[in-house]
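pls design
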C-alpha cells in the first residue's frame, strides 16, 4: 500500500499512538479516512470534468466542420440563384422558345432487316446473332 511495507506501516502506527494517545487515535483515523475519501472524490470529479471538456472540444471541432460544409453549400446555392445570372438564363431560354427554326429530333438507326429462309445456319452465325441481340 502506497509503496510501503508492513514494518513501515507498523512504525507509523506506533508513532501515531504515542503522539495522539489511545483516546484521540480513533477520531484521528476517522478524520484521515474522510480526508482520503474527499481527495478521491475530488480527483474523480476533476477527471470527469477534464473528460467532459475534451468531449466538448471534439464536439466543437465537429460543429466547425459542419459549419464549413454549410457555408460551402450556401455559397453554391447563392451562385446558382444569383439574380444577374438568372436574367441571362431567362433571356436565353426565351430566345430558345421564340426561335422559329425547327430542331431536328434525334433519329434512331433503322432496324436491321433479316431474311427469312429455311436453310440451316452454321454455329458461328448463330453465336454472332446472339451476341448482337444482347
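designed seq:
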Amino acid at each position: 500500500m502506497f509503496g510501503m511495507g508492513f514494518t513501515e506501516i507498523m512504525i507509523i502506527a506506533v508513532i501515531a499512538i504515542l503522539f495522539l494517545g489511545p483516546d484521540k487515535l480513533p477520531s484521528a483515523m476517522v478524520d484521515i479516512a474522510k480526508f482520503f475519501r474527499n481527495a478521491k472524490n475530488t480527483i474523480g470529479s476533476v477527471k470527469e470534468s477534464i473528460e467532459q471538456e475534451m468531449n466538448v472540444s471534439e464536439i466543437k471541432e465537429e460543429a466547425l466542420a459542419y459549419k464549413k460544409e454549410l457555408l460551402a453549400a450556401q455559397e453554391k446555392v447563392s451562385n446558382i440563384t444569383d439574380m444577374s445570372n438568372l436574367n441571362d438564363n431567362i433571356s436565353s431560354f426565351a430566345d430558345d422558345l421564340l426561335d422559329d427554326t425547327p430542331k431536328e429530333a434525334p433519329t434512331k438507326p433503322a432496324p436491321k432487316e433479316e431474311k427469312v429462309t429455311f436453310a440451316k445456319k452454321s454455329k458461328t452465325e448463330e453465336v454472332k446473332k446472339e451476341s448482337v441481340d444482347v
